[in-house]
Amino acid sequence: MHLNPVNKNNRMFEQVLDRIQQSISSGMLAPGDKLMTEREFASSLQVSRSSVREALRILEIFDVISSKPGEGTTLKKPNVPKILTKILPFLTYPLDETMELLESRKILEGGIAKLAAKRRKSKDLQNLKEALNRMEKTEDIEERIQADLDFHLFLAKSAYNNTLSDILIVVSDVVSKNLYTTGFQIHTHDAAYRDILNQYYRIYDAVDSKNPQQAHLEMENHLEYMVDFIKKYAITNNHSDETAFNF
After folding, report:
1. Of the four listed, 21, 28, 127, 131, which is most buried by Cβ atoms within 10 Å?
2. 58 and 36 in one domain?
3. How many CB atoms lie within 10 A of CB 76?
4. Which residues form a coiled coil (predicted)?
5. How many of the other CB atoms lie within 10 Å of CB of 2?
Protein backbone atom coordinates (compact mmCIF):
# COMPACT_ATOMS: atom_id res chain seq x y z
CA MET A 1 0.00 0.00 0.00
CA HIS A 2 1.47 3.34 -1.07
CA LEU A 3 0.57 6.58 0.70
CA ASN A 4 1.53 10.08 -0.39
CA PRO A 5 3.54 12.18 2.10
CA VAL A 6 1.50 14.42 4.39
CA ASN A 7 1.34 18.20 4.25
CA LYS A 8 3.86 19.34 6.85
CA ASN A 9 1.88 22.57 7.41
CA ASN A 10 -0.95 20.60 9.02
CA ARG A 11 -1.07 18.62 12.26
CA MET A 12 0.83 15.40 11.76
CA PHE A 13 -1.33 12.87 13.57
CA GLU A 14 -4.47 14.24 11.91
CA GLN A 15 -2.88 13.96 8.48
CA VAL A 16 -1.80 10.38 9.20
CA LEU A 17 -5.31 9.51 10.32
CA ASP A 18 -6.75 11.12 7.20
CA ARG A 19 -4.49 9.03 4.94
CA ILE A 20 -5.56 5.84 6.67
CA GLN A 21 -9.23 6.83 6.38
CA GLN A 22 -8.74 7.46 2.66
CA SER A 23 -7.21 4.01 2.23
CA ILE A 24 -10.21 2.42 3.95
CA SER A 25 -12.77 4.47 2.01
CA SER A 26 -11.11 3.77 -1.34
CA GLY A 27 -11.03 0.03 -0.73
CA MET A 28 -7.24 -0.18 -0.54
CA LEU A 29 -7.79 -1.65 2.92
CA ALA A 30 -10.52 -4.15 3.77
CA PRO A 31 -11.52 -5.84 7.06
CA GLY A 32 -8.95 -8.48 7.93
CA ASP A 33 -6.11 -6.76 6.06
CA LYS A 34 -2.86 -6.12 7.86
CA LEU A 35 -1.74 -2.51 8.11
CA MET A 36 1.82 -1.39 7.60
CA THR A 37 4.06 -1.22 10.64
CA GLU A 38 4.64 2.08 12.43
CA ARG A 39 8.06 2.28 10.81
CA GLU A 40 6.63 1.66 7.34
CA PHE A 41 3.86 4.23 7.84
CA ALA A 42 6.37 6.80 9.08
CA SER A 43 8.67 6.20 6.13
CA SER A 44 5.87 6.28 3.54
CA LEU A 45 4.24 9.43 4.94
CA GLN A 46 7.53 11.08 5.95
CA VAL A 47 6.39 11.73 9.51
CA SER A 48 7.54 10.67 12.96
CA ARG A 49 6.59 7.28 14.36
CA SER A 50 4.92 9.05 17.31
CA SER A 51 2.44 10.72 14.92
CA VAL A 52 1.64 7.33 13.39
CA ARG A 53 1.31 5.77 16.84
CA GLU A 54 -1.22 8.39 18.02
CA ALA A 55 -3.31 8.05 14.86
CA LEU A 56 -3.42 4.28 15.26
CA ARG A 57 -4.28 4.65 18.94
CA ILE A 58 -7.36 6.73 18.09
CA LEU A 59 -8.49 4.15 15.53
CA GLU A 60 -7.99 1.36 18.06
CA ILE A 61 -10.04 3.22 20.70
CA PHE A 62 -12.91 3.34 18.22
CA ASP A 63 -12.47 -0.35 17.43
CA VAL A 64 -11.58 0.32 13.79
CA ILE A 65 -8.33 -1.63 14.07
CA SER A 66 -6.95 -4.35 16.30
CA SER A 67 -3.34 -4.43 17.41
CA LYS A 68 -1.71 -7.47 19.00
CA PRO A 69 1.94 -7.85 20.01
CA GLY A 70 3.75 -10.05 17.54
CA GLU A 71 0.79 -10.14 15.14
CA GLY A 72 0.72 -6.58 13.87
CA THR A 73 -2.29 -4.34 13.27
CA THR A 74 -5.43 -5.52 11.48
CA LEU A 75 -8.37 -3.58 10.09
CA LYS A 76 -11.64 -4.58 11.80
CA LYS A 77 -14.26 -2.22 10.35
CA PRO A 78 -14.91 -1.27 6.71
CA ASN A 79 -15.43 2.38 7.62
CA VAL A 80 -14.35 5.01 10.12
CA PRO A 81 -16.96 6.25 12.65
CA LYS A 82 -18.46 9.62 11.74
CA ILE A 83 -17.67 10.85 15.23
CA LEU A 84 -14.02 11.23 14.24
CA THR A 85 -14.95 13.92 11.72
CA LYS A 86 -16.67 15.77 14.58
CA ILE A 87 -13.85 15.65 17.09
CA LEU A 88 -10.70 15.86 14.97
CA PRO A 89 -10.82 19.64 14.41
CA PHE A 90 -11.18 20.08 18.16
CA LEU A 91 -8.61 17.63 19.49
CA THR A 92 -6.13 20.50 19.58
CA TYR A 93 -8.63 23.14 20.68
CA PRO A 94 -6.80 25.95 22.56
CA LEU A 95 -7.00 25.42 26.31
CA ASP A 96 -8.12 28.97 27.10
CA GLU A 97 -10.93 28.77 24.53
CA THR A 98 -12.03 25.41 25.91
CA MET A 99 -12.22 26.94 29.39
CA GLU A 100 -14.30 29.85 28.07
CA LEU A 101 -16.67 27.45 26.34
CA LEU A 102 -17.08 25.42 29.53
CA GLU A 103 -17.79 28.64 31.45
CA SER A 104 -20.50 29.46 28.91
CA ARG A 105 -21.93 25.98 29.25
CA LYS A 106 -21.94 26.35 33.03
CA ILE A 107 -24.18 29.43 32.78
CA LEU A 108 -26.36 28.05 29.99
CA GLU A 109 -26.80 24.48 31.17
CA GLY A 110 -27.08 25.41 34.83
CA GLY A 111 -30.14 27.46 33.92
CA ILE A 112 -31.45 24.67 31.71
CA ALA A 113 -31.20 22.15 34.55
CA LYS A 114 -33.04 24.53 36.87
CA LEU A 115 -35.91 25.03 34.42
CA ALA A 116 -36.03 21.33 33.57
CA ALA A 117 -36.54 20.50 37.24
CA LYS A 118 -39.54 22.85 37.29
CA ARG A 119 -41.12 21.88 33.98
CA ARG A 120 -40.11 18.35 33.08
CA LYS A 121 -42.78 15.85 32.12
CA SER A 122 -42.86 12.08 32.48
CA LYS A 123 -41.71 11.56 28.89
CA ASP A 124 -38.69 13.80 29.55
CA LEU A 125 -37.63 11.65 32.49
CA GLN A 126 -37.99 8.59 30.29
CA ASN A 127 -35.73 10.13 27.64
CA LEU A 128 -33.12 11.14 30.20
CA LYS A 129 -33.14 7.71 31.82
CA GLU A 130 -32.88 6.01 28.44
CA ALA A 131 -29.78 8.07 27.61
CA LEU A 132 -28.22 7.18 30.97
CA ASN A 133 -28.98 3.49 30.46
CA ARG A 134 -27.32 3.53 27.04
CA MET A 135 -24.32 5.37 28.40
CA GLU A 136 -23.95 2.91 31.26
CA LYS A 137 -24.46 -0.35 29.38
CA THR A 138 -22.55 0.12 26.14
CA GLU A 139 -18.82 -0.48 25.84
CA ASP A 140 -18.67 1.19 22.43
CA ILE A 141 -16.98 4.59 22.82
CA GLU A 142 -18.92 6.21 19.98
CA GLU A 143 -22.29 5.06 21.35
CA ARG A 144 -21.31 6.14 24.86
CA ILE A 145 -20.39 9.65 23.72
CA GLN A 146 -23.61 9.93 21.70
CA ALA A 147 -25.63 8.92 24.77
CA ASP A 148 -23.74 11.57 26.76
CA LEU A 149 -24.67 14.22 24.19
CA ASP A 150 -28.28 12.99 24.11
CA PHE A 151 -28.54 13.43 27.88
CA HIS A 152 -27.65 17.12 27.54
CA LEU A 153 -30.00 17.61 24.60
CA PHE A 154 -32.92 15.85 26.32
CA LEU A 155 -32.33 17.99 29.39
CA ALA A 156 -32.53 21.13 27.25
CA LYS A 157 -35.83 19.96 25.74
CA SER A 158 -37.16 19.41 29.26
CA ALA A 159 -36.81 23.14 30.00
CA TYR A 160 -39.66 24.04 27.59
CA ASN A 161 -38.33 27.51 26.82
CA ASN A 162 -38.54 28.61 23.18
CA THR A 163 -36.12 31.52 23.58
CA LEU A 164 -33.59 29.25 25.23
CA SER A 165 -34.10 26.76 22.41
CA ASP A 166 -33.34 29.52 19.89
CA ILE A 167 -30.11 30.33 21.73
CA LEU A 168 -29.19 26.67 21.74
CA ILE A 169 -29.72 26.50 17.98
CA VAL A 170 -27.13 29.25 17.57
CA VAL A 171 -24.54 27.69 19.86
CA SER A 172 -25.44 24.01 19.44
CA ASP A 173 -22.80 23.32 16.80
CA VAL A 174 -19.95 24.58 18.97
CA VAL A 175 -21.40 23.09 22.16
CA SER A 176 -21.98 19.70 20.56
CA LYS A 177 -18.43 19.60 19.19
CA ASN A 178 -17.14 20.50 22.64
CA LEU A 179 -19.25 17.72 24.14
CA TYR A 180 -17.83 15.25 21.63
CA THR A 181 -14.28 16.37 22.30
CA THR A 182 -14.43 16.42 26.09
CA GLY A 183 -16.51 13.27 25.96
CA PHE A 184 -13.79 11.54 23.98
CA GLN A 185 -11.32 12.16 26.80
CA ILE A 186 -13.78 11.32 29.59
CA HIS A 187 -15.10 8.11 28.08
CA THR A 188 -11.65 6.70 27.39
CA HIS A 189 -10.68 7.30 31.02
CA ASP A 190 -12.47 4.70 33.18
CA ALA A 191 -12.39 6.51 36.54
CA ALA A 192 -13.52 9.81 35.01
CA TYR A 193 -16.28 8.06 33.08
CA ARG A 194 -17.68 6.56 36.30
CA ASP A 195 -17.52 9.97 38.00
CA ILE A 196 -19.41 11.62 35.13
CA LEU A 197 -22.07 8.92 35.10
CA ASN A 198 -22.66 9.40 38.84
CA GLN A 199 -22.92 13.17 38.30
CA TYR A 200 -25.53 12.66 35.60
CA TYR A 201 -27.58 10.44 37.89
CA ARG A 202 -27.50 13.16 40.55
CA ILE A 203 -28.71 15.70 37.97
CA TYR A 204 -31.43 13.27 36.93
CA ASP A 205 -32.52 12.70 40.54
CA ALA A 206 -32.78 16.46 41.14
CA VAL A 207 -34.86 16.92 37.99
CA ASP A 208 -37.00 13.91 38.87
CA SER A 209 -37.70 15.25 42.37
CA LYS A 210 -38.42 18.73 40.95
CA ASN A 211 -35.65 20.39 42.94
CA PRO A 212 -34.49 23.34 40.75
CA GLN A 213 -31.75 24.57 43.06
CA GLN A 214 -30.25 21.11 43.43
CA ALA A 215 -30.42 20.49 39.68
CA HIS A 216 -28.63 23.78 39.06
CA LEU A 217 -25.99 22.94 41.66
CA GLU A 218 -25.40 19.43 40.32
CA MET A 219 -24.94 20.72 36.77
CA GLU A 220 -22.49 23.36 37.97
CA ASN A 221 -20.58 20.72 39.93
CA HIS A 222 -20.47 18.52 36.84
CA LEU A 223 -19.02 21.27 34.65
CA GLU A 224 -16.54 22.28 37.36
CA TYR A 225 -15.37 18.67 37.35
CA MET A 226 -14.96 18.87 33.57
CA VAL A 227 -12.84 22.01 33.91
CA ASP A 228 -10.60 20.37 36.52
CA PHE A 229 -10.29 17.19 34.47
CA ILE A 230 -9.28 19.05 31.31
CA LYS A 231 -6.73 21.18 33.16
CA LYS A 232 -5.19 18.12 34.81
CA TYR A 233 -5.14 16.27 31.48
CA ALA A 234 -3.42 19.18 29.75
CA ILE A 235 -0.80 19.51 32.52
CA THR A 236 -0.17 15.75 32.62
CA ASN A 237 0.43 15.78 28.87
CA ASN A 238 2.58 18.92 28.99
CA HIS A 239 0.13 21.09 27.06
CA SER A 240 -1.05 23.43 29.81
CA ASP A 241 -0.08 26.52 27.82
CA GLU A 242 -1.22 25.25 24.43
CA THR A 243 -4.18 22.96 23.98
CA ALA A 244 -6.66 21.05 26.05
CA PHE A 245 -6.37 17.95 23.88
CA ASN A 246 -3.17 17.40 22.02
CA PHE A 247 -2.11 13.96 20.91
Report:
1. 131
2. yes
3. 14
4. 115-148
5. 7
Q: Are residues 49 and 108 in the same domain?
A: no
Query: The domain containing residue 38 runs over which residues?
Result: 12-80
3-state helix, strand and coil shares in percent for the chain, rounded to the nearest 5: 70, 5, 25
- Interior CA angle at 228 toward 207 and 87, to 5°? 80
Q: Is the dihedral of CA 129, 131, 135, 140 positive or negative?
A: positive
In a domain, 2, yes or no: no
Type and span of the H or E element at 171: helix 162-187
- Whichever domain contains 62, its CATH number is 1.10.10.10
Q: What is the pLDDT of residues 144-179, one digit of tens each?
A: 888 888 898 899 889 999 777 656 555 555 555 555
Model confidence over 193-214: pLDDT tens digits? 899 999 999 999 999 999 999 9
Number of domains in the chain: 2
